[in-house]
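new request in #modeling-help
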Amino acid sequence: MLAIICYALLAGSFDHYGILSQVSIPLALTSFAGTVLSLLLAFRTSQSYERWWEARVVWGAIVNDSRTLVRQVKLFMPQTAEGLAVAKEFARRQGVWCFALGESLRKLDHSDKVTSYFAKSGTDSGNKPNMIINHHSDALAAATEQFKLDPNKQVQIDATLARLCDSMGKCERIKNTVFPRAYSVLIHFLIYVLMTLLPFGLEDQSKLVEISLTIIIPALFIAIEQTAILMQDPFENRPTDTPMTQLAKTIENTLMEIVGEPPVNQIEPPVSYFIM
Amino acid sequence: MLAIICYALLAGSFDHYGILSQVSIPLALTSFAGTVLSLLLAFRTSQSYERWWEARVVWGAIVNDSRTLVRQVKLFMPQTAEGLAVAKEFARRQGVWCFALGESLRKLDHSDKVTSYFAKSGTDSGNKPNMIINHHSDALAAATEQFKLDPNKQVQIDATLARLCDSMGKCERIKNTVFPRAYSVLIHFLIYVLMTLLPFGLEDQSKLVEISLTIIIPALFIAIEQTAILMQDPFENRPTDTPMTQLAKTIENTLMEIVGEPPVNQIEPPVSYFIM
Amino acid sequence: MLAIICYALLAGSFDHYGILSQVSIPLALTSFAGTVLSLLLAFRTSQSYERWWEARVVWGAIVNDSRTLVRQVKLFMPQTAEGLAVAKEFARRQGVWCFALGESLRKLDHSDKVTSYFAKSGTDSGNKPNMIINHHSDALAAATEQFKLDPNKQVQIDATLARLCDSMGKCERIKNTVFPRAYSVLIHFLIYVLMTLLPFGLEDQSKLVEISLTIIIPALFIAIEQTAILMQDPFENRPTDTPMTQLAKTIENTLMEIVGEPPVNQIEPPVSYFIM
Amino acid sequence: MLAIICYALLAGSFDHYGILSQVSIPLALTSFAGTVLSLLLAFRTSQSYERWWEARVVWGAIVNDSRTLVRQVKLFMPQTAEGLAVAKEFARRQGVWCFALGESLRKLDHSDKVTSYFAKSGTDSGNKPNMIINHHSDALAAATEQFKLDPNKQVQIDATLARLCDSMGKCERIKNTVFPRAYSVLIHFLIYVLMTLLPFGLEDQSKLVEISLTIIIPALFIAIEQTAILMQDPFENRPTDTPMTQLAKTIENTLMEIVGEPPVNQIEPPVSYFIM
Amino acid sequence: MLAIICYALLAGSFDHYGILSQVSIPLALTSFAGTVLSLLLAFRTSQSYERWWEARVVWGAIVNDSRTLVRQVKLFMPQTAEGLAVAKEFARRQGVWCFALGESLRKLDHSDKVTSYFAKSGTDSGNKPNMIINHHSDALAAATEQFKLDPNKQVQIDATLARLCDSMGKCERIKNTVFPRAYSVLIHFLIYVLMTLLPFGLEDQSKLVEISLTIIIPALFIAIEQTAILMQDPFENRPTDTPMTQLAKTIENTLMEIVGEPPVNQIEPPVSYFIM
């Protein structure tokens, strides 16, 4: 950002006082370079938004499948106290999964809820959310034996687990796939080209106007690109992030309601985003 | 809106009478800023439309799955009076669900139909539509025990419930996800930049023409952006909304027809949208 | 259309003989307004095409699911004369469904085939295609009892019925969702603005050329928008429609072939569209 | 193409020698008409590419589902010589299906492989690929009775047949849906308008340059549109086609490998496309 | 690239010293040709990115389905040492599959892991990944007989195999489908046209500026197109590739964790891409 302003000032003064002051480049050419840049930025903006939106859609699916998982477990287990106990255990574990996924995507230290869960379970893993799905799977195997569960029902619950596993993998994909750097390089290069051409096209203007314009216009492009950069990585602990902690809290409360337990989290109205 | 007209007048008069009257900025530059703005607006318009259309698609899926749910319950229950009674109960409950979902998305007070349903059922929840799906699930568990339902059939009805739960979650996602404010800010900023540049590019025109143009052109951009804002939040109790009440009424009538009951709602031809 | 030509002539003559004849608006500004309009039209064109194509895709799915339904019924029923009779009945009913859906989407009077089907069945409904799916469902329930059908197979046929129900709901959604009028209004307004600005930018041309241009250019935009309007509602009994009658005939013949019956419709080569 | 060059020459000479030689139309207007045309062409190009790509995706799905079908039949039949014989029969029939589908989409005469299959089976149909799926279905019914196949497995194989039926229907949809002619007409009209306007905007150029430009620029647009036309119909026996014969051969070899038979086709490296 | 610079120099000098030095082509026309080129490049860029992203999505699905496969095998086999042995065998085989797929897509020699697997199994195939899926299928058939597996469970595992088979087919489709060459040809042709027109529009500039511009601007377009070419084929052993080896290693470690084995690969932080 700062580098760009310096460059703009430099280019502008060069144009005036340097040996290049007789040179003038038609504005049509400059505005044509701007059109190319605009189209590249439009592509960039739209792809970044797609990533951000996909992240949100995936977490929407996590909300739905979490509810469905617990509802199915409750529905398919025998309608007894033991069956309900299994459902409650699934609900608690699924709540932990949501927090664990959010935290590992943001590469944060795990919260107390998650670490105490793993301490209790006596297992550990580099990929904690995946380990929790394995625990779900083991618990399902145990419940199948205990209650002689019909295979159809076991398969249906397993299918929901597979969908959760899919959502987890999609988050990892978005997190780990770098947006092709070549496009950033091209866009930056075009902004510099534009900044170099611009002063030569404004020859006949007053110096003040010329300098303001050579600063404002590239700044606009930079702003658009920065916004795209913020949007494209939605799991980086930034205000534009997918609100994973918020969602995890809401999910956990709903899961508790499904199995007839009181809510465990207090939901605050979302504020962070608007501050931006 | 008003602020913008004032700003335009101010910028225009400054240009004429102020110390800046010798300054002129080439129109090519202005129209180039306009191209950037156009591309951003095209992106904005298209994303808002996608949200609006997705909302409509989700409610279309709710129509279909509601019908399918009741049809399946009727088909899979024993073809007796008791089986039909269960199907009728599902149909009624599903009708309430549609209204409850629409009202909670619009953050309206719940209608009599919904409140009386919850009064009768003796339960309550912050997320009423989700609670009704739990009731469906409980009723399915009860019917499975009562009629010794084949697990295959139970699983199939459960899959339809899972799809309804998905649609509900998608509506919540659209409702709760704020469109990235950064883009609105950028667009507003670009409109102001354009308004400031425009008068300097029209120097040699008559004052009247200049002022009209500096008002009309930004007004056009504002109008396009406002339309996008209206479209992007389709559950806000506005004429451009997804017609959820209308759809809920139609769904309820069709459900009643499937279980052989007379229609309960009178459908009026949709008028609201055209008034806009 | 005519209104627009009149307006163009009016605006053109005003420009020449009226008090505004000294006024001239730079062409760059006009062509910039045209860029905004082009982007809006590009959005409009692309969304209308999407609707048209989606309608075609949905009817493609109806073709496939109709075939699959009858094939499944034939496959899952016992391989006896009675089983085949059920499949034939399904084939006939599904044929009627295709015609009923096409006709009710176009809001036409129902054809003899459909009315005689409902006369025979002794039922009636405001939503005839949905009623026929209910009949399918009832026939499936009856066949299940008669042949002690395995629940797995019943569920599979039911899933195909659910897909047909989905396709029906998608057609209804496309039919009943008005394309946001706000965009039409904006586009029309922009065309008028363009027509008003255009003559002032062509000041130095001969009168004849000026008038032809102020007519031809807006006419082009109108033509593009009209095409979009034709495409966006693909069930309106127009030559650009989804060819539903043609498709229904083809479907019915194929269904008859599957159950070993002779074709019932004569397929004519599609001609209507090319006339346009 | 030729007509257009003639028209360009005519328009150009008219401009020079005719009575219109005093008329000059600003180039800004011409280039603005060109922008509209570009956007329409961009839309056209992108939609044609989508159709071409969808055709390729559908054939990709056919590859996958063919493999899956034979693998499933082999897996679900008893692991005996008789079970394997059924799988081999399915593999051979599925190979024929791929060829039959490709040939009927291209409206070619059927190859020996297909005609000899139908001669042997003693059946015939106007829609040969659909008839082969019916044969699959009949063979599945027979095998179910012979081996007392579990309904679950039968249903799973049937689901793969339904997906193949879907892919077939999608190919038919792409084949039979004409791209809306209105857009071609608009594009051609715009090219003519552009060619008429262009010479008047180049008044002050040498005659040679003017004529070359009035030929080259419309020729470019025509070339872009022609490419779109080639892409939009991917089953027309042209070098840009989906390589269906090549794919059918590969599929058949893989199917043979799955059931433990030697390959039946020699695959040549694809060359046709690069010749273009 | 070099050819283009030479051409630019040639065209530039021709313009100055040749007989064409009186000819001048308006810059508006040139920038209009540039607009067409920009739109084609925008289309090209966006389609290439789609292919690259689809490749990444498919490998994301492979990650998920690999985990799901092993988890399901472990869940559905009896919870005994023998059951676990089968799951371990599946985990190992699935690990090999990931490497085999990556290597055959890149047309590399197979690694030791893969060749030793095939040496042990005593089979071979031109399409190694497909052969491994067949081995999965055979092992599933054997386990079904050994443990009297419920058909429901067998079918569910088979469905996961079918999804893996789909992902494999999608990779092959992306690998084998050449991006339509016609568009590359058009884009190159347009770049040459632009380079030829450009010097004639810059007549009144200093020679140095003119030559730099005629080199820089086409170079930009070439750079954008080259980036698109790199992105469109994501399995070519280039730094912009889908990181298949990295992914295969991660998958194998996770699979080992699921069946309770120690990790077999050391994961290095991804570096290659950033070098670009």
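bot summary: Chain D has ten helices and no strands.
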